[in-house]
Amino acid sequence: MAKVIPGSLRVSNDCIADLAGYAALECYGVVGMAVTDEQHGVTRLLPITRLSRGVDVSSEGGRLVVDLHVVVEQGVNMAAISSNLISSVKFLLGRIAELEDVEVRVHIEGMRTSR
């Protein structure tokens, strides 16, 4: 059984972004995280070592906001994937980082066909 230690826990935005990125990759239909080049408007799929670049972490009104930028597999139900992503990220952040009031926003940046 875990022993309760009094005090507070501080988690960096980079750590939150990494956790959210890993949770997102575990979801069915998600191919990977994405980043969009502002100058050229081109979306790139990120390698697994750069997951946090596809996640934006901010605070709005004292509430943590996580924006996920993902590429999904063609032919999947985007509403179902979005709902699954939101649930998975909220669960993982609540379980590991003890963050309860988290808003997760999903941005589907592209679709990839299966080969």
Relevant terms:
Alpha-Beta Plaits; 2 helices; alpha+beta; single chain; globular; 115 residues; five-stranded mixed β-sheet
Task: Explain what the structure shows.
There is one protein chain. The chain is α+β, with helices and mostly antiparallel strands. The chain has one domain (18-112): Alpha-Beta Plaits, CATH 3.30.70.1350. 28% of the residues lie in helices and 35% in strands. The chain is built from two helices and five strands, in the order αββββαβ.
Reported for the largest beta sheet, the result is: 5 strands, mixed
Question: What is the helix/strand order?
Answer: HEEEEHE
CATH architecture: 2-Layer Sandwich
Share in β-strands: 25-35%
If helices are DSSP runs of H or I spanning 4 or more residues, what is the number of helices? 2
Output the CATH class name.
Alpha Beta
Number of domains: 1
Supply the CATH superfamily name. Cation efflux protein, cytoplasmic domain
Radius of gyration over all CA atoms, rounded = 15 Å
The third-level CATH topology is Alpha-Beta Plaits
**Estimated helix fraction:** 25-40%
Q: Class by helix and strand content?
A: alpha+beta
- Overall, the morphology is globular
Compute the number of strand runs: 5
